[in-house]
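Incident log entry.

Two folding requests arrived from the same account within the same minute. Monitoring flagged them as a possible duplicate submission, but the sequences differ. Recording both here for audit purposes.

Request one:
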Amino acid sequence: MSLKEEIKSAAASLKPALQEIRHHLHMNPELSFQEHNTAAFVENYLQNLGLQTQRLAETGVVALIRGKNPESKVVALRADMDALPITEVEDGRPYRSKNDGVMHACGHDVHTTSLLGAATLLNARRDQFNGTVKLVFQPGEEKLPGGASLMIRDGVLENPKVDVMIGQHVMPQIAVGKTGFRKGLYMASTDEIYMTVYGKGGHGAMPHFNIDTVLIASHIIVALQQVVSRIANPAIPSVLSFGKVIANGATNVIPAEVKLEGTFRTLDENWRYEAHNRIRSIATGVAESMGGRVDIDIRVGYPFLKNDTDLTTRCQHAATEYLGATEVSDLDIWMAAEDFAYYSQQVPSCFYRLGVRNEGRGIVHSVHHPSFDIDEDALENGCGLLAWLALQELGA
């Protein structure tokens, strides 16, 4: 039996155990930077494999699987462990979250399960590869400043020094059994915008006595659309969206202040910070021209995610060999953000997508949706492909 068939067979035999792990994690989700029980569960699993574990960033877990010539190359495999503040739909699924208002709606339970499965496969074959596999279970992907940045701060890319890093993420737009890759720029940077518009509140029937904060805020939102439509280079993908407006007046009350919250995303770091300056300048100018003022707080989030071309080419080729050519597709740029981007800025990295969709079973909901779920056949590919990619990078 070839190594590929051996991995496939072993991954298939792990499926019942992987389902049990995933159900446990799904029923016991923890919010970003609160993953204490999840981290302990991961530690216990790895220690039962005979691996030594290390804590980083308080709730992050790292372990090493040393093969032959362990210093020759280090491949890091990453999973995130945090859940979201979402109430899971009550649809009869037996593994529904037991933590009210907290749900694994982004598949991080799948990522953790897949990496634990890959650890099982790789640990049993440490005499079949050269180098070292570093297992990285990180906290806080869903919340700034991002667990990846804290893991890097605490030395996850050192001791031993990581040569390449690989991460996978579920994608409900891709059918189960399939996977997707993109070389080069893939995901956007993300920054949070908070504005408070100040004016003079008063009776809606006497606008001449007021400085209308609602009107000012409206003009700011409209004026800022030119940041993307007229100021940005059309060749640079950019998004500026406002999703929260609080004007706490009434039908006949103009409030003294209005709050705006939004996001700016792009794939160019120089333009990113120029855009911040343009946003501040335009919003300030509009507010002042209408007799008001605005306070602006732009909170810098994750950088853009870039997949190393050479590594991603090798991984896509390896995935094609493992799954078959029809099961591997090319992905487009995606303007969502991921803190895996921090790793990609430091070491050659590959972040790819794992298909979990099954239309026949109604498993079609997007991540961050209260009905999100996966076809658990994906767990087999999730762990098997991760292990296979690591083995190919280490020359097994």
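Request two (distinct sequence, not a duplicate):
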Amino acid sequence: MKLKILSRLVCCLILLLVMFSGSAFAQSIYSRHGIGLLRYRDGVRSIGMGGIGLAGTDTVYAYFLNPATMGKLNLTRIQGDFLYERASVDLRGTNGLFREANINSLSLAFPVKRGYVFAFGIQPYSRSEFEFNQSKGDSAVSYVEILRGTGGLNEFYLAFAGTFSAVRAGLTADFYFGRINRVWRVNFTSDALRNTEDVTNNHVTGVGLHLGAQTQLGKWMLGAATGLPTRLSVGTELTAITGFTSDTSESKLKLPLWWGLGVGYAPNRHWLFGADWRTQRWSTVKPEEFFGERGVDSFDLGFGIEATPSFDALAGYFKRLSYRVGGAFRQLPYEEPAGKKINEWTVTLGLGLPFTSGYNRIDLALEIGKRGSLSSNVAEEKIVMIRAAIVGSERWFQRGPRR
């Protein structure tokens, strides 16, 4: 019966993936920089609490950014999450509305021995999706110039976590891959002139590492994680509208060092308070290793609360739900030409809905916020993100009690 429940969860995740794999990613003016907007975050439960997760441990949930937190898992866990994003863009008088609907990630974690857990999964690292149209010229020659970007980086990871006395430690191998495409096109209004188009395809691959540690001191939880600097290989191919394709050139893309600290406080089973700080040193990356961008150090600051009124299986259903609230403030790794930094803030709400034995969850998270500012940047984006995850847990590779 248990395997049937888990197999149904897997089928649901695959069905969602097929349904939404063709959906377009939401556009953002700020994804035109470098590798686009970073999507390097933990799961839906974490996002509902402002993105915290570096210190948290749980027997059902696993956090990706600090692999050490998986050391407490005692059940096999499969998770897939779905993302819907809506962005309302104000570009100083020009408005736009963009949407995204897509599967965001898929992961599997299972204990190989008590206190030792292996996990793997796939998720986005960054996304780039934008388009600019501008009319130029005069009465003699007029044309429309179009600049379009698509793609981003994805990540497949293999993680291992172990418990060593009072400390948990974890190590993750990150396999990056993806394409970042740029199209520059000029459409002339006159049929006497031929339209032009240049397409630049950047194919990115590489391997990195990140690791972390976590411990619990009474009612307090402490966690720390870091990602080592990584150089990825980039193969660039330029194609003109005539069909001419240049030879592929090789270059490097650098993902710099990041590190983060987290703290959590659980006065009892019903309440959890937490906060995270994470920063990445993009200012150390040379422009030629960052698609021509001059980066600035980015950071994420998040805080959140979770309340679960009851864990009694006989209690009313609404008493067994987990209620979450939080907030986050981020500084993007790019700056505008005038030297102004790009900030993003969100407030978050989350809900955890148990089903079957209680070890399985449907998690929901809502983020509402703003990216950029008309007073400092070229555009202001009002963003709404809805995330949903299915988390299934079962007992694999473990012997039952002997009779």
